[in-house]
Amino acid sequence: MALCLKQVFNKDKTFRPRKRFEPGTERFELYKKAQASLKSGLDLRAVVRLPPGESINDWLAVHVVDFFNRINLIYGTMGECCSETSCPVMSGGPRYEYRWQDEQQYRRPAKLPAPRYMALLMDWIEGLINNEAVFPTQVGVPFPKNFQQVCTKILTRLFRVFVHVYIHHFDGIIAMGAEAHVNTCYKHFYYFIQEFSLVDHRELEPLREMTERICH
Q: Which positions bind Zn(2+) (predicted)?
């Protein structure tokens, strides 16, 4: 019997706290507008389009933070299924392997177990979205010139979470009754990155067949 989604996605109190937008700010209003469109049942392709008169960087910021929250939560539910024993390498099937690289501990691409890769990824993204120099929250503070490149890197790495979850842990998603929820999150994410050409098509290849089936 399928579990209530609220039960599924709130069962583990060790999830990192959600990044939130401050009420009263323009970005909070934009977030509410995006969420209202999402809940209204509109076509997801239409939901991701930049509203007239809105800043592309604000729209990107709102969605990057929201996708981080959602995908982090989805992976968090897979914690019991994804271990260093079951997933000794961060991969998407036998053809795709993802190595971790950052500016601190892993200056050269490192082959890591999936849980370790995921922990580093979520910490790295959290550090960026909480950094006022990268994701400014104060009115009138400009985004950095490389903001869209930063978003591309974040979204590319988040896509790899979908790859790993769909290819290695989808049975677990089905067992929890969360398939429809995860599929909707994926479609929303996919239409967004396609609308703004944010992720290289080569990165999308591991899920191409599934994407053609559920997104077209």
A: 82, 87, 164, 169
**95-124 confidence digits (pLDDT tens):** 999 999 998 899 999 999 999 999 999 999
By the 8 A CB rule, do 49 and 195 touch?
yes
Which tokens belong to 187?
């479609």
Considering the entire predicted model, what is its pTM?
0.83
Binding residue ranges for Zn(2+) = 82, 87, 164, 169
Please say whether the beta carbons of 203 and 156 come within 8 A.
yes
Q: Residue positions in the annotated binding site?
A: 82, 87, 164, 169
Q: Phi, psi (5° rounding) for residue 50?
A: -65, 120
The CATH architecture one would assign to domain 28-215 is: Up-down Bundle (1.20)
Q: Which two tokens stand for residue 161?
A: 């979470």
89 DSSP β-pair partners:
none
Q: How does pLDDT run across 132-185, given as a tens digit for each residue? A: 999 998 878 899 999 999 999 999 999 999 999 999 998 988 888 888 888 989
Domain-by-domain residue ranges, the chain? 28-215
3 state DSSP class of 100: strand
3-state secondary structure of 109: coil
